[in-house]
C-alpha cells in the first residue's frame, strides 16, 4: 500500500512524465508479446523460418508473400482496443500532465486512445508506404493482390508497413527525442518491458528525475535502488491509482 501511495504522490507532484512501455502494455488488449512462453517468437510458423527471420528486411525483400502472410496473421490486430494503460495516460493528460509515451509497440493503440505525444521506437503497422513512390496508406486502405501482397494503385509496387524490421536502423530522431524527454522527466513509469533489447536497455540510464516506477509481471534490471517495483499486471496497478 505504501508503494501505491508513493506513486500517487509522485504523479500529483510531477509535471513531466515519461511512460515507457513494451509489449506487456498491449497484452491486455489481446495482442501477444514476443518473448514469453506463448509469445510470437515461440510460436510455430508455416515454414522452416523462425519468426525473427521472417521479420527481417532481407526476408521481406526475398520472400514478400511469406512475409505478409506472417505480418497480417501475427502482427496486425485490427480489432484490438486500448486498455487501462492507454486510457490512464489519457487521463494524466486531462489533468494537465505533460506526458511523453515512449513505446516499443507497433499497434497504434496509444494514438487510438488519444495519447497526444507518442514516440514509436519500432514504427506502427497502422501506417504503410509504397516502396517506390513513398505514398502513405493507412492499414484499412491497403489493396492486396491475388497472393496477399499490398500493392500501390499508382505504380503497383509493394506497400510495406512503416515498422523497423530486423536489419534496419532505428529512427535516430525518435531516439534523440525519447532521451531528451527522459532526461527532462520528473517521473518515469516503465511498464511491460524486460529492458533486454536495445535501446530500451539503455534508456533508464538517462533518467535523473525524482521517481522511477517499474510495473512488470517478472523482475527486471533497474539501476536505482529506490525504484518503485510492482510485479503485477499493468492493469491491476494502474486501476488502483487515484488521479
UniProtKB/TrEMBL annotation:
Per the record, a Pfam family?
SIR2
Q: What is this protein called?
A: protein acetyllysine N-acetyltransferase
The EC code for this enzyme is 2.3.1.286
Q: Which InterPro entries match?
A: DHS-like_NAD/FAD-binding_dom, NAD-dep_sirtuin_deacylases, Sirtuin, Sirtuin_cat_small_dom_sf, Ssirtuin_cat_dom
User: Which organism was this protein described from?
Assistant: Macrococcus armenti
A molecular function GO annotation: NAD-dependent protein lysine deacetylase activity
Q: Which PROSITE patterns match?
A: SIRTUIN
Domain of life of the native organism: Bacteria
Per UniProt, residues of the Deacetylase sirtuin-type domain are 1-243
Query: Transmembrane segments in this chain: where?
Result: none
UniProt keyword annotations, A-Z: Acyltransferase, NAD, Transferase
Amino acid at each position: 500500500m505504501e508503494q501505491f501511495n508513493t506513486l500517487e504522490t509522485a504523479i500529483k507532484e510531477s509535471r513531466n512524465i515519461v511512460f515507457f512501455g513494451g509489449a506487456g502494455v498491449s497484452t491486455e488488449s489481446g495482442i501477444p508479446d514476443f518473448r514469453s512462453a506463448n509469445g510470437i517468437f515461440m510460436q510455430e510458423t508455416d515454414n522452416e523460418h523462425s519468426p525473427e527471420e521472417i521479420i527481417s528486411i532481407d526476408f521481406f525483400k526475398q520472400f514478400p508473400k511469406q512475409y505478409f502472410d506472417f505480418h497480417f496473421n501475427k502482427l496486425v490486430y485490427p480489432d484490438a482496443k486500448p486498455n487501462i494503460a492507454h486510457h490512464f495516460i489519457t487521463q494524466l493528460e486531462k489533468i494537465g500532465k505533460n506526458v511523453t509515451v515512449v513505446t516499443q509497440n507497433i499497434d497504434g493503440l496509444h494514438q487510438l486512445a488519444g495519447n497526444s505525444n507518442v514516440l514509436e521506437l519500432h514504427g506502427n503497422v497502422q501506417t504503410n508506404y509504397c516502396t517506390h513512390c513513398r505514398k502513405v496508406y493507412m492499414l484499412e486502405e491497403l489493396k492486396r493482390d491475388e497472393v496477399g501482397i499490398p500493392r500501390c494503385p499508382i505504380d503497383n509496387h509493394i506497400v510495406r508497413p512503416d515498422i523497423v524490421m530486423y536489419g534496419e536502423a532505428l529512427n535516430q530522431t525518435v531516439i534523440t527525442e525519447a532521451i531528451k524527454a527522459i532526461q527532462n522527466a520528473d517521473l518515469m513509469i516503465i511498464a511491460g518491458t524486460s529492458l533486454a533489447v536495445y535501446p530500451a536497455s539503455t534508456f533508464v540510464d538517462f533518467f535523473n528525475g525524482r521517481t522511477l516506477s517499474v510495473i512488470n509481471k517478472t523482475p527486471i534490471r533497474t539501476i536505482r535502488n529506490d525504484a518503485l517495483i510492482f510485479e503485477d499486471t499493468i492493469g491491476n496497478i494502474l486501476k488502483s491509482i487515484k488521479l
